[in-house]
Specification:
Layout: H1 8-11, H2 29-37, H3 47-114, E1 119-122, H4 128-132, H5 137-155, E2 173-176, H6 184-195, E3 199-208, E4 211-218, E5 221-227, H7 232-247, H8 249-258, H9 262-272, H10 278-292, H11 298-311, H12 316-329, H13 332-344, H14 346-352, H15 355-373, H16 376-386, H17 390-399, H18 403-411, H19 422-431, H20 435-446, H21 455-472, H22 476-484, H23 491-503, H24 507-520, H25 526-538, H26 541-554, H27 559-571, H28 575-588, H29 593-605
Parallel strand pairs: 1-2, 1-3
Antiparallel strand pairs: 3-4, 4-5
Helix pairs in contact: 3-6, 5-7, 5-8, 7-8, 8-9, 8-10, 9-10, 10-11, 11-12, 12-13, 12-15, 13-15, 15-16, 16-17, 17-18, 17-19, 18-19, 19-20, 20-21, 21-22, 21-23, 22-23, 23-24, 23-25, 24-25, 25-26, 25-27, 26-27, 27-28, 28-29
């Protein structure tokens, strides 16, 4: 038996006789067969038979017409059913999309609420007479918000990443106006209250026997301030500072520092070192260290930065400041180590340092690392890219033996700044010109500009180089007087002692002090090249070669080490071997005039 077809219920099954519909004429199969069998082929039909056949023909046509109408009705019904099914499916899809969209919107609002750290100042309660004068609760709330916004604007541009604050309002500070009814805004507010971390400030202004009292509340903390009617602005400012101190203690300490309220700043930061959060404790130590930095107390600032690193190991803000601090102390070997630690602490850099400060801070660390490591060509490139720290740019240019560029950089600084004299003085010292002593003395006598934070330049850079200049131009007593005021844990200070002794032809003391400098900076090239140059002058070519190789090993991009190596080989008459050393040195110090002269001599002698 064949499987039922899609139209079997409409057209019937060919394998079975379909019952005629009630009320329709029905053929007589037996009579039709009898009439047809009696008919002679080719002869005309009997009238009765012909009438009967005609009747049967009409019956068949009626049946065909009936079946055709049924077929068309069935097809129409099927089309309507298919359209209805499609419409129902479309409605189901639209309902699903609408429901899904509502769920996504609700989840988005919930996520936004859960990550909301904004600040809402609710309308204050005020006495009726103040409200009648226009000082409504909303106006007082707005005034408080304006003060908080100002505090945030003053302290917002720090190195600290906004996301590292336990309470970071961002730019979401607003006054909340009570609403009635349920709306999307109300729903969002309910979600923020339930899931969010918004700080809400409430309060009131009320009259006392002596005048007015303003109370501001944040969480469980309330601060009250009293005064006369005309003191309302002052009361609002006091309330804003108290609120800021409670909710944003580190930023409040920055505000106090900017206002030169240093004792209050230390108190706030000292209290913050006991915070339950180690990140807040680390930032508190960084803040205390920053107050001591800039030459005021470099040893004290290093202690604070190390304390921050104990709270959060690998804490990048402490490491970058510690690099600056160690530069100021003259601990050049430690500068290299701390710079390497910072450059490896990229997770902390991205987590704890503000996005707009990361590149600047990182470039500054690389600049100090390259200057300390003797890679002066890269230090110059970093300083030019950074566009700040003019002392380090000028110092790197001199160390890279680009004396012309150093003089140009110094000339751009006014004559009331020590930088106008220091780079030319160092250049004159390299060239063996007596003017070096007077220029460096002029720079040292000027002292650091206000808020320079560069006291260390005078005590641990200019003073040692001036001592060397005095010794080379005959003032040995003046040189010793300057050196006696320098510390012995300062790398350049020890080098200067050795160079002063070498200038006085005291080989024993020169070897002693330069060996001490090498012990303190075993990974640095400068003391090696200082000793190697002195040894070469004394005729100890083997010792000079040894120092040149060691300097090149610790700093392959240091031009001084390569030139010293070439000079020692040239002294031995190995001109062909010296030439590649000079060429390599020129890659890093292309403006070095003495290097070019030495190379020209080597080219002439190698044949």
């Amino acid at each position: 038996m064949a499987a039922p077809g899609p139209f079997d219920d409409v057209l019937g099954d060919e394998s079975e006789s379909a019952a005629p519909e009630p009320g329709l004429p029905r053929e007589d199969p037996f009579a039709a067969a009898l009439a047809l069998s009696a008919t002679t082929p080719g002869a005309p039909l009997d009238p009765h038979t012909a009438a009967y056949v005609d009747e049967q023909t009409r019956l068949i046509r009626l049946q065909v017409k009936h079946y055709d109408e049924e077929r068309r009705l069935a097809i129409g019904a099927a089309k309507r059913k298919r359209f209805g099914d499609r419409l129902r499916n479309l409605l189901v899809v639209l309902v699903c999309l609408a429901t899904g969209g509502a769920m996504v919107g609700l989840l988005a609002m919930a996520w936004d609420a859960a990550h909301d750290h904004g600040l809402i100042v609710e309308a204050f309660s005020v006495p009726p007479d103040l409200a009648q004068r226009g000082l409504t609760g909303q106006i007082v709330a707005r005034q408080l918000l304006d003060r908080l916004t100002d505090l945030q604007a003053r302290t917002g541009r720090t190195m600290r990443a906004p996301g590292s604050y336990r309470n970071d309002w961002g730019d979401d500070l607003k006054v909340e106006i009570p609403q009635t009814g349920v709306s999307i805004g109300e729903l969002r507010g309910y979600l923020r209250d339930w899931l969010g971390h918004e700080a809400h400030i409430t309060g009131e202004v009320y009259r006392t026997a002596s005048g007015l009292t303003l109370t501001a509340r944040t969480g469980d903390t309330a601060s009250s301030f009293s005064g006369q009617d005309g003191d309302l602005d002052k009361l609002v400012q006091q309330a804003a500072e108290a609120t800021y101190a409670h909710t944003q203690p580190y930023r409040y300490s920055v505000y106090l520092g900017l206002a030169n309220r240093l004792a209050e700043q230390r108190a706030v930061l000292g209290a913050l070192t006991g915070d339950p959060d180690p990140v807040e404790r680390a930032w508190a130590h960084v803040g205390l260290g920053n107050e001591l930095a800039g030459g005021i107390d470099p040893a004290g600032c290093a202690v604070e930065y190390h304390a921050a690193l104990r709270e959060v190991p690998g804490f990048a803000p402490a490491l970058t400041n510690l690099v600056d601090c160690e530069v100021g102390l003259g601990h050049d070997q430690q500068v290299l180590r701390d710079a390497a630690r910072f450059l490896k602490a990229q997770e902390s850099v991205h987590r704890d340092i503000a996005p707009d400060s990361r590149e600047r801070v990182t470039a500054g660390v690389r600049l100090l690392r390259d200057t300390t490591d003797g890679d002066y060509s890269d230090a110059v490139a970093e300083a030019l890219h950074l566009g700040e720290r003019p002392w380090l740019l000028a110092y790197s240019l001199v160390q890279d033996h680009d004396l012309g560029s150093a003089d140009i950089a110094a000339a751009k600084v006014g004559p009331d700044n020590y930088l106008h004299y220091a780079p030319p003085g160092l250049g004159a010292l390299e060239l063996g010109q007596p003017a070096a002593a007077s220029l460096l003395n002029q720079a040292l006598s000027m002292g650091p500009p206000p808020f320079c934070g560069c006291d260390w330049v005078f005590s641990r850079v200019l003073r040692p180089w001036l001592a060397v200049a005095k010794a080379r131009f005959g003032d040995a007593a003046g040189a010793q007087a300057l050196l006696s005021a320098t510390p012995t844990d300062c790398y350049l200070c020890l080098r200067a002692r050795g160079l002063v002794a070498a200038a006085g032809d005291d080989r024993t003391q020169a070897e002693r002090w330069l060996a001490e400098a090498i012990a303190q900076g075993a990974d640095l090239p400068q003391a090696f090249t200082d000793r190697g140059a002195a040894r070469l002058a004394w005729g100890d070519v083997a010792g000079a070669l040894s120092d040149a190789r060691r300097a090149n090993a610790v700093s392959p991009r240091n031009a001084d080490a390569l030139k010293l190596w070439g000079d020692a080989l040239a002294r031995q008459g190995h001109w062909r071997d010296a030439l590649p050393k000079y060429d390599a040195a020129l890659n890093f110090a292309p403006a070095w005039a003495a290097l070019r002269r030495a190379r020209a001599i080597a080219v002439g002698r190698k044949g």
